[in-house]
Amino acid sequence: MPVTTTDKPSRRQEMLPNGDRPTSDRSWPWFTVGSVLLFFSYGANNVALAAWLSPLFLLHFVRRQGWQVWMPLLLVAQTAASAFQLRGMFPVAGTAYYVFLVIGSLQTIIPFAADAWLARRIAGIASTLVFPCTWTTLDYLTSFGSFGSWGAAGYSQYGELALLQILSVTGLWGLTFLMGWFASACNYLWDEGYDSKPARKAVYLCFATMAAAILLGGLRLSFFPPSSETVRIASLSKRTVGAEPALDRLLANKATAGDLTEIRKRAGGVNDDLLLRADREARDGAKIVFWAEGNAFVLKQDEAALLARGSELAAKDHIYFGMALAVLNPGAAKPLENKLVVAGPDGNMAMDYYKAHPVPGEEAAMSLTKDGRLQILETPFGRVSAVICFDGDFPQLLAQAGALRSDLVLDPSNDWQAIDPWHTQMASFRAIEQGVNLDRQTSHGLSAAFDYQGRTLAAMDHFHASDYAMVADLPTRGVQTVYSRLGDWFGWLNLAAFLLLMIAAFRTNWLPD
After folding, report:
1. Do the beta carbons of residue 447 and residue 441 sit within 8 Å?
2. Does an H or E element contain 220, and which?
3. What does the alpha-carbon distance between residue 87 and residue 81 come to, in Å, rounded to a whole number?
């Protein structure tokens, strides 16, 4: 039974006499516009404004069509848009790729279904919260899955620094909520007309909240920028040294003596070059030097010798030296150790961090992981922690950096061209959320350094570089944010609100207009 506060039903409720939606020819142009904008709402050809407008027009279409019409059409539109937006980004292929696309698209239509079936039962401003609370809850819950926060709507707003400061309070989930609320509130006014006082109040409140978020974010950028001393950090990606060896037989534990000789030769050339360049950067003034993810590959039996050389270099140059290793251990159940080992200026090993979240698929199948705990390194340049590549897509993992009061986070990474620069842009959100300064060195992608407000301090694209080296001066002090202290409070708040709205939708006069 619809919830009303007057005897006269609203225009939106009049459209729904039997719990279904009549078709409306006038809504089809908005479906077309919304679908086109959907292709630019996330991913390789992202346009920040499109991510706000697309759900607005699609929601308008959904509210005027029966589910038998809008649901299959929206599923097709979302699947096609995902295939376009995320082309080449998936670590899966073949049938699994198409299954993944469809499953992901099914998830995106859930907020529209919730709005179609619940919002009409709730009167007033509260009805506008169904869509954003459902969307935000889904973004939050899926961040615990195998692909972390991939697909979260907020990433579409990269570069909008004043707005992005909301990350320091709510995390990603605040952005999803604002985008969803904008669509829902505008549609409420669109449905009810400007003469509707509740609809006007909903839009005014939504717009005031958005304006406050942007204004306060701008003030944070202007009045509270990083002011600490800086430290020079040099990060390196490997250069091609000789032909790539075939590792298939090695990983299958079928390598011959000749194979091992060739692999050691290849590894030695790459690692010698990385050590030489690290020494050069230290002599040029870098206090912290580290390599990109897995750039030094080494057989397990040769690992100690390589680490000894790195330790000697760190002691000689008085630096903190991060060696990102791909340690190959043929015959082991998990033959790959993807880790970052940091030697201090005293030559002792100060950190030994294993990648916590290998990419699902081949990498996850072969990678040895440990406890998933971030480590902290006390230095004259602040408290230093580290993650590796895909780890940065898991906000809950980086929450450890905030809890440990890290000032600097090193992020050795290795991407591929299809996710360049998107993946590095995603990582920058962790800096704002946790109040840390982030340095991400990326082979086959965008390397970039960000301060804790998301400013880009240095950048180097692998596909437009020759020496594959980035030097950045990062602040030595981070800040504690609301989000780093309270965690996913806003995600849980949206989940609770969604459950309350479900109850309200089936109770008469539960919520006032």
Report:
1. yes
2. helix 197-223
3. 10
Task: Report if pTM > 0.85.
Answer: yes
Residue-range domains of the chain with CATH: 11-224+488-505 (no CATH), 230-477 (3.60.110.10)
Task: Report the b/e string of 241-261 with b at 16+ CB within 10 A.
Answer: beeebebeebbeeebeeebbe
Q: Are 189 and 203 in contact (CB under 8 A)?
A: yes
Name the DSSP letter for residue 223. H
1-40: per-residue pLDDT in tens?
344 444 444 555 445 433 445 555 788 999 999 999 999 9
What whole-number distance in Å separates Cα of residue 430 and Cα of residue 355?
Answer: 17
Instruction: Report d(CA 396, CA 143) in Å as an integer.
Output: 8
Beta strands in 272-419 (DSSP E): 288-291, 296-299, 320-328, 336-343, 349-354, 377-379, 382-386, 408-414
Among candidate residues 438, 440, 444, 446, the one with its CA nearest the CA of residue 422: 446
Pairing of strands 469-475, 456-461: unpaired
Burial annotation 67-104 (CB, 10 A radius, 16+ → b, else e): bebbbebbeebbbebbeebbeebbbeeeeeeeebbeeb
pLDDT for 11 equals 52
Q: Label residues 317-332 b or e (16+ Cβ within 10 Å = b).
A: bebbbbbbbbbbbbee
The mean pLDDT value for 405-429 works out to: 97
Which residues is 443 bridged to in the sheet? Answer: 414
Residue with tokens 């050590």: 275
Q: Which helix (H) or strand (E) holds 77?
A: helix 67-85
The pLDDT assigned to 199 comes to 96
Query: Distance (Å, rounded) from C-alpha 434 to C-alpha 483?
Result: 7
pLDDT band at 241 (very low <50, low <70, confident <90, very high): low
Residue 295 has what DSSP assignment?
A: -
What pairs with residue 440 in β-bridges? 411, 448
CA distances from 26 to 63, 66, 117, 156, 333 (A): 12, 14, 21, 29, 60
Q: Which residue, 471, 438, 476, is CA-closest to 454?
A: 438
Answer whether 154's CB lies under 8 Å from 429's CB: yes
Examine the pLDDT at 330 and tell me if it is beyond 90: no
What is the C-alpha to C-alpha distance for residues 440 and 425, in angstroms, rounded to an integer?
10
Q: SS3 string of 237-261?
A: CCCCCCCCCCCHHHHCCCCCHHHHH
Q: Could you please report the per-residue DSSP string of 470-511?
A: EEEEEES-----HHHHH-SHHHHHHHHHHHHHHHHHTSTT-S
Q: Find the range with the poorest average confidence among 72-86, 101-115, 240-254, 496-510.
A: 240-254
Tokens, residue 417: 């061209």
Q: Are 275 and 314 in contact (CB under 8 A)?
A: no
How far is CA 468 from each of CA 272, 276, 415, 437, 461, rounded to the nearest angstrom? Answer: 15, 14, 14, 21, 8
